[in-house]
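Slide 14.
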Amino acid sequence: MLCVINLKSKMDIDMQEKFCEQVPAYGSKHNILIAPTLPIKNNKYSAEIISQNISIKKRIVGEISPNVLKKLGINYTMVGHLERRKALNEDISIIKQRLENALDHNIVPILCIGITNNPTEIVEELNSILKNVFLENKKVIIAYECIESTIKGIKCYNEYEIMCIFKEIKRCMDELKRSNFNFEYQCLFGGCVGLEEAEMAKNIGFDGILIGDRYSYFDPINEMIKVWSNE
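Slide 15: predicted structure.
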């Protein structure tokens, strides 16, 4: 399974370091990716360090470039996180540029979607981002996250809604593969995820979970990862 943990700006750097130190080595069965607020060299912890963001293609200030990520040994980056979109007004054009910059440098994008809970609108969002993006022989991770749950810190969805959303995401991505490209993708579920929600995500068919900084230590997340250990 794939578990992405996004450590946000309210968690101080010492706590982030302690959190990373708590993650055990899982071997090949589980892939644990941690995105600290400041990207660091990807050789210090058992978990793989990833980036919370990547720059657009043109010359820019205050953004991290793919060349820097490569120098740090970082192979994954989040793209279009919903809180960035909401707080910084990042539109589809910006997200697409970040996505293409990651793919052009063989960095796997974790594309965050979920501005609404409407399956049709989510597919429209996904199609608008991926339109004319070259995906041949690439890998992309689609992370659906209920933005309302993320902001409020409470569960704002039910299993049927998430199942419908998952089916539409899979249909959209499989159609894209059949009609255009040979590429690999995985689907994650996020948005106020606890043990019950992790079990739901596995039963629906998600490949893993996206977790924010609601946990200051790793043990509860380890229990969620164990959900996938019985496959």
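Speaker note: The longest helix spans residues 159-179.
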